[in-house]
Amino acid sequence: MFHTLPYKTKQFFFVLIKLSIVVGAFYFIYQKLAENEGLEFSTFIHFLTENRVFSLKNVVFLLVFTLFNWFFEILKWQHLVASIKKISLRASLEQSLGSLTASLITPNRIGEYGAKAVYYSKTHRKRILLLNLVGNVSQMTITMILGTIGFAFFVNNYDINIDYYKLVRFVFVVIVIGALGLLGIKQDRFRIKGFSFEKVLKFIKAISAKTKATVLLLSLIRYLIFSYQFYFLLTIFGVEVDYLRAMMVITSMYLLASIIPSIFIFDVVIKGSVAVYLFSAVGVNEISVLSIISIMWLLNIVLPSIFGSYYVLNFNFKSFHEE
Questions:
Q1: CA nearest 74: which of 62, 89, 84, 63?
Q2: pTM of the predicted model, to two decimals?
């Protein structure tokens, strides 16, 4: 039915969709900053000014961290897509930042999958969905490995209140769900966008070992960059904690925050709650932790999404009616 509409009508709807995405993203960013119950915006700005976070040296360092963080994410996407189609670094930049903006208000960044897929022809879109899954799983793998190590050290060094009964019950439920999932995969009953799990696994196995290793390495570099950026902010706020102890808490925070389902725009709230609890063990006050979480969110999510809005508004929908 959509294909029967006049060309100009289609263009009007496409422009309306693009504007809606950008306006929606900016509205949620504004709402998150203006209506943050944990940290009022005026208090946040006053605290930053008090601690001279806005000095030229600090701003330059923080922006460099953000630049490299996203550079390696863009490079990672370029390497993944190269398995089916060669794209330039500029194209990877557009797709990565544009999809970030489009996915900002969707649960767990699910909108990123569809946003990246629309950059490609229909024959490639299913594989693009799977490649995006591989990229996200690789980043999650690094988070889980380093986070588990960090959390093990954290639990061993600090007396925290853990309900082991609930923990064991949770692990049991996860194991049961995993076992049922594996059973379903073997029986080939479940599908992802027309792909059976068997075909999904076959597709992932077909990706070269070199590409997989490169993607994991780039995910590791990204992780080290944004985790050190967090530590750098701790030093700016005058928190006296050595690097290894800080990383123990930071990796634990990212581990716990990553396994809690959330709408991505509220990721700052999830990380804030987890971080306040964890950093209280090493004597870091709540306002410092919440301020750092907010700055990390502004630098690594809001700032790139602002640039991404340019690519969303300038996106060419011609591919939708080429085939």
A1: 89
A2: 0.83
Question: What distances in angstroms separate CA 78 from CA 83, 114, 227, 237, one per listed residue?
Answer: 9, 17, 23, 36
Residue 48 · residue 233 · CB < 8 Å: no
**Cα angle value 203/255/193 (rounded, 5°):** 30
Token duo for residue 60: 């330059």
**Predicted pLDDT of residue 277:** 82
| 107 φ/ψ angles, rounded to the nearest 5 degrees | -60, 125
> Using one digit for the tens of pLDDT, what is the confidence trace for 117-168?
888 888 888 889 999 999 999 999 999 999 999 998 988 887 666 555 555 6
CA distance 303 to 13: 27
Which residue, 32, 36, 12, is CA-closest to 104? 32
Residue ranges in the chain whose pLDDT is less than 70:
1-14, 35-38, 108, 159-197, 260-272, 317-323
